[in-house]
Write a structure and sequence with these properties.
By secondary structure, the protein is of the alpha/beta class. The chain has 4 helices and 5 strands; from the N terminus they run βαβαβαβαβ.
Length: 143
């Protein structure tokens, strides 16, 4: 099975939630034939998925964005991840750490239409929604 793993950037995690995210990643890839990732320049889930796949010798298909912008970059990259995955899993956090200095969305994840207490906004949720539209298996993991 080709497992696409997407989710939140490094800054949205604490040491504890990073450990939990890595545990989830290892559980997802243990029987994978291929790990599909987007190689986010901000670190986090994409990079951890690649590190864990490398650690266990699992082949990877990496789609870094061609540009650091939505059109011509992230959007096309995310669609490629969805297209090449049999199962697409988005891993995000329930809440942001106090040290997080990026944008905050008090209304919650507008991709999932969930309240703020469910999970923070993640671009990985957009990718997961696209995979669902393509008929792929999807899962949301919240740490």
């Amino acid at each position: 099975m080709r497992v696409g793993i997407v989710g939140s950037e490094y800054a949205k995690f604490t040491p504890e939630t990073e450990l939990r995210a890595r545990e989830i990643i290892r559980g997802l890839i243990v029987d994978a034939e291929l790990v599909v990732s987007g190689h986010c320049h901000l670190g986090g889930i994409d990079i951890w998925a690649e590190q864990e796949a490398e650690r266990f010798g699992i082949p990877m298909m990496i789609f870094p964005p061609k540009r650091l912008s939505w059109e011509g970059g992230y959007k096309q990259r995310n669609l490629q991840i969805a297209e090449h995955s049999d199962l697409l899993v988005c891993i995000t956090v329930r809440s942001l750490p106090p040290t997080y200095a990026g944008m905050r969305f008090p209304q919650g994840c507008y991709h999932c239409k969930t309240p703020a207490e469910h999970h923070v906004k993640s671009g990985g949720c957009w990718t997961m929604k696209q995979a669902e539209r393509m008929g792929k298996q999807t899962r949301l993991e919240i740490v």
